[in-house]
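User: What would this chain look like folded?
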Amino acid sequence: MELRHLRYFIGVAEELHFARAAARLGISQPPLSQQIGQLEAELGVRLFERTSRSVRLTTAGTAFLPAARATLDQAERAINVARRAARGELGELNLGFNASAPFVPLIARSIFAFRQAWPDVKLNLTEVAGRAQPTALVDHALDACFVRSIRRPEICDNIQVTPILSERLFVAMRPDHRLAGIEELHLRDLAGEPMLFYARENGATFTDELMGLLRAIGIEPVVAHTVREVSTLFGLAAAGVGVTVLAESMCALQSAKLVYRPLADPESTTAMWLIHLRDGASLPCRNFLEIIAKESAAAEG
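Assistant: Here's the prediction, encoded as structure tokens.
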């Protein structure tokens, strides 16, 4: 049985007139009659009682009509689903990100724009430590990841690395801290200061890179506490447990109990990178990459 047989049957059943049904379906009457005959032969039942003056459904035809409509509707829905999936309107997008990525305006705008453009794509957002992200890409657990790193991440050749933005590092501290009155700080000002860091066991590269910057100028970091959550980092800084160094975008989390001072050293910068597989990206992923490319171009323009 073919879908066109169902369309022809429904057309005749609704018109109860072969000529009108043929005109509605866009075919001539003889082929329509022939197709209905083929359908009846395949089913082994008569669907219509025909006379020279009238056409009416048989008992079998009356029972078959709602089932035929349901089958045709389901087939059309399946066709629509396939076509939408081919356009990237359905499916899933699995994004990995580090703790600070959601606070980067470019990233937040891109995610919002993707949700607006592709509302039926299931968007899965997962916080993944920097060192674990390449493995998640290769294993196809993630489609793309945002990575924070001072330098371009050294990753295998089959992973594309795209710079998103570069930003200054800031020191967050209580307003009554001894360094709060200085408008611009240097890394050397942090010598001997109790500091708050992200826990290394989370695989956060930012902590290692920051400690590397301090040790490069002869400063051994004083670790007051390590944390796993951004909220804990800010809370302990506000409580005076220590100062913390963070990316400029994180300063958007304004707090009356904290002040932010930029680091003036040329090397006191950090960058955000987008990584994804060079080949085999899903269509939703390719659509997201296009959106973030447009947002990046708009930000630069």
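The longest helix spans residues 59-86. If you want, I can go into more detail on any region.
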